Amino acid sequence: MIAQLIEHGLVRPSFVPPPPIRRLRDLTRYRASLVHERTREIQRLEKILDDAGIKLTVVASKTLSVSGRAMIEALIAGQRDPAALADLAVKRMRVKIPALREALTGRFSAHHALLCRAMLERIDQIQATIATLNQGIEVELAPFQTQLAHLRSIPGVGRRVAEILIAEIGVDMTRFPTPEQLASWAGMCPGNNESAGKHHSGRTRKGDTWLRAALGEAAAAAARTRDTYLAARYRRITRRRGAKRAMVAVGHAILTAAWHLLTAGVDYQDLGADYYTRRVDPARQAQRLAAQLAGLGYRVTLEAA
Question: Which pTM was predicted?
Fold first, then answer.
């Protein structure tokens, strides 16, 4: 009875990880918090620059690239000449020097310099702490290098996401007898909301917010891959249900794959971008495509090759 309730998402199974996983979880969660804080601090910096009329983000993809950091440091040091500031660009940014001169023409004052210096110092402090945490995470992950490699074989799953997966779900999948139970615990499966024979919104439950965020990041990366099953799944669901539901579905597929990889101890084997095409009856697929062409005003004659 309990297993059925868990499978349908009505009860979440308890999961008390062993000490090594708990230590790893503490480190990855604190790192994630610091990454978010660094992002907010960079956004504050961009807002101050915008207030000063410095439109660096219009030209540069990253505010704190090597070129962007050098220009901001020069502004803080008192340099106000747009041509001199733009000349600090390096490598590929140098082709944008004319646009940079225009973007760096503003009203940057001592007040802006004080705030920018404080924000840069704060960003550097956060970055140093993140580097320290990364070292600790590498130490804790030393016994799980094989599992880490298996997870990284999934399209869209980079090292950081793989680290979070191990920290949040562990490597012992006997705690979750089925991938459906794991998805229910993580809050990555739709709810069963039915009353009087009517189906209502089956939105996912909150679940593990840290894991959900990592799966969302992985799903977005997988959706951008080429010739993969996950990208095909994303496009297929997007057409019918929208991008948000497609992201959840791809995240669910990644979590299901992670369960199988950790259970079997193997690398990911992609089903291929043509997975859904191969599942369709060729005759029905041909008739559907012919009907679409006929709807566009073409006369279609089907002949077997």
Answer: 0.80
